[in-house]
Design brief:
Pfam families: CRS1_YhbY (PF01985). This is YhbY family RNA-binding protein. Keywords: RNA-binding. GO terms for molecular function: RNA binding. The protein has about 100 residues and is an alpha+beta fold. Helix content is about 40%, strand content about 20%. It is built from four helices and four strands. The protein has a four-stranded mixed sheet, with helices on both faces. Strand 1, helix 2 and strand 2 form a beta-alpha-beta unit. The two termini are about 25 Å apart.
Length: about 100
């Protein structure tokens, strides 16, 4: 995924203010089930928040690895919450228009 510009980050951060965290990273870390849940959440919502309950010291590294694995962009990390964005894929009906 291409890097977001500072203006895009600002807009997405503003949009994420009303979004509640949909995934929590607990003591088991980034398991396959958690990665799949995040992938499904990005398909549905494009912009999500991920709350770090454990691994708070490693949240930057884990967020970057997660974004690379899912072809997403890390908008920013506020406290123990990461904001992640991935644009929705165009459906065949949208491509025909």
């Amino acid at each position: 995924m291409s890097e977001l510009s500072s203006n895009q980050r600002k807009i997405l951060s503003r949009m994420a203010q009303t979004v509640k965290p949909v995934v929590q990273i607990g003591q088991n870390g980034l398991t396959d089930a958690v990665i799949k849940k995040i992938d499904l959440s990005l398909i549905c919502h494009e912009l999500i928040k991920i709350k770090f309950i454990s691994f708070k010291d490693e949240k930057e590294i884990l967020s970057q690895k997660l974004c690379e694995a899912l072809s997403a962009s890390l908008v920013r990390i506020i406290g123990n919450t990461a904001i992640v964005y991935r644009p929705a894929e165009a459906t065949p009906s949208e491509q025909d228009d």
